[in-house]
Design a protein that fits this description.
By secondary structure, the protein is α/β, with parallel strands linked by helices. It is built from seven helices and five strands. Strands 1-5-2-4-3 form a five-stranded mixed β-sheet.
């Protein structure tokens, strides 16, 4: 078994993105399998879905995304309004030893809200800043180029 570097305090944040859809980014090759693989190595892993279709959420057995009381979109709305962000209330625990901040169709409207938001590139970082310290790895699943532009690497750290 290969040795992994000890994660920095606050863990590694890895954004997984591809402009083309249907390449296996979410389920078959990257986000889910990487997360489960890291969890199998004893690492604490959080997955965050930046996917309005909720593919990551669905692939982890939560087909009822629109019935979830708190999703990534909810957290981002709170961040934009400077309301308290409690990411722990959105986290779903999976039997494979990984945690998930789910997404749903509400996230599609978020991009429009972010266009006029002050410090929009920090919105996701603000949502994850408190909770990421509890994890060795945070894997963010991006589905399309719009969110990649808004959440630059400086904004995610």
């Amino acid at each position: 078994m290969s040795k992994l570097l000890k994660p920095p305090k606050g863990g590694y944040v890895i954004a997984i993105a591809n402009q083309k859809g249907g390449v296996g980014k979410t389920t078959t090759t990257t986000t889910v399998n990487l997360g489960i693989g890291l969890a199998n190595l004893g690492k604490k892993v959080l997955l965050a879905g930046c996917d309005p279709q909720g593919d990551l959420t669905t692939s982890l057995g939560r087909a009822e995304q629109d019935q979830l009381p708190v999703t990534l979109s909810t957290l981002m709305e709170r961040a934009i309004r400077d309301d308290p962000i409690l990411p722990q209330e959105s986290i779903l625990h999976h039997a494979e030893g990984i945690d998930l901040i789910p997404s749903n169709l509400d996230l599609s409207a978020m991009e429009m809200n972010l266009v006029t938001a002050i410090s929009r590139e920090c919105t996701l970082r603000n949502c994850l800043s408190e909770v990421k310290k509890d994890y060795d790895y945070v894997l963010i699943d991006f589905i399309y180029i719009g969110f990649q532009d808004i959440f630059t690497t400086d904004g995610i750290d």
